[in-house]
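Sample entry (395 residues):
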Amino acid sequence: MKDFPRVVLKQGKDDAIKRFHPWIFSGAIKNILGCPKEGDVVEVFSNNGDYLGTGHFQTGTITVRVFSFQQLTPDFEFWKSCLQKAYYLRKELGFTDNSETNVYRLVNAEGDNLPGLIIDYYNGSIVIQAHSIGMYLIRDQIAKALTEIYGGKLNTIFDKSSETLSRMNLANSENEFLLGNKVENEVMEYGNKFIVDSEKGQKTGFFIDQRENRKLIERYAKNKKVLNTFCYTGGFSVYALKAGAIEVHSVDSSKKAIELTEKNILLNELDIHKHQSFQLDAMDFLKDIDQKYDLIILDPPAFAKHNSSKRNALQAYKRINLQAIQQIRKSGIIFTFSCSQVVDRNLFYSTVVSAAILSGRNVKIIHQLSQPSDHPLSAFHPEGEYLKGLVLFVE
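Predicted structure, serialized as tokens:
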């Protein structure tokens, strides 16, 4: 077995990793032996010399992301076995051979015991996004393993790690194709068609995590006037129109998002006369919607990516929810979401309730929503629950 650099924890700082939590914080470290470089594999030991785990090293608050609690040398076969386990779970969940849905998340970082790695599948194309330099450095092994697991059925593998790594000043990387060169793809979700531009789109190209919540919209949209704010590619708008909404308005500040939304409306052969797009700031648009809508979707980008911005984020969540609750029609429905990881479920719930109190209207919570089954949450890493949602009924 290879001799790796060692990260030794302070006395009493090993409780979390003994409970299989995959993060080692810088403040828990006593010393580091062996001078590891960014992305190197290291082994974690207790102050008493007991082996605790193996992971990727990087400078920062989270110094080690543990991918194994058994002492081993992570070679190609190890990484392939991890990916095979992730694939098997999606197969058991019914995603790998689904005639209605051919887009799903294959690897959800800590939820699949691969911290720092996101892999999304788009109808024969795969997008990889590394959130740690360690995972980025093994991207070629990951691509090779994926081609073997899918048996040559993949058309493209696109590495889209540049943005996530450059924000942390971890790598001078460029997004690149590891297989093929196809940029745009057409996918299907519950029979609805969507154009995905992984190269230029947000995240990996499509918000797969909202699939079941988009499906839920069908239950409430018939004969309703619907407002979809922060619409991105118009997912909620497509589902609402398919369900029989009499009018749908899609709002986003991005010209590219509005163009994709309108393409997706046409792609699904929906009545374009029932849909209208607005390239405007959604926060501004919400200021004057007095009694126009029966159903409102609030799906903003992450207002807070770090604890330092949590307070401002909570004020933003309160403001948009207050505006929607105050101005929605009587007996209206609001789908409201937060994808900010630092704003936990209880905090988001409390913020929406505060907005409801300030509105002076009677508000009921009829659904509590989360990320879908192909975005699994490790029982030992509750921080992995980033998507929170509530469906409100406003009397």
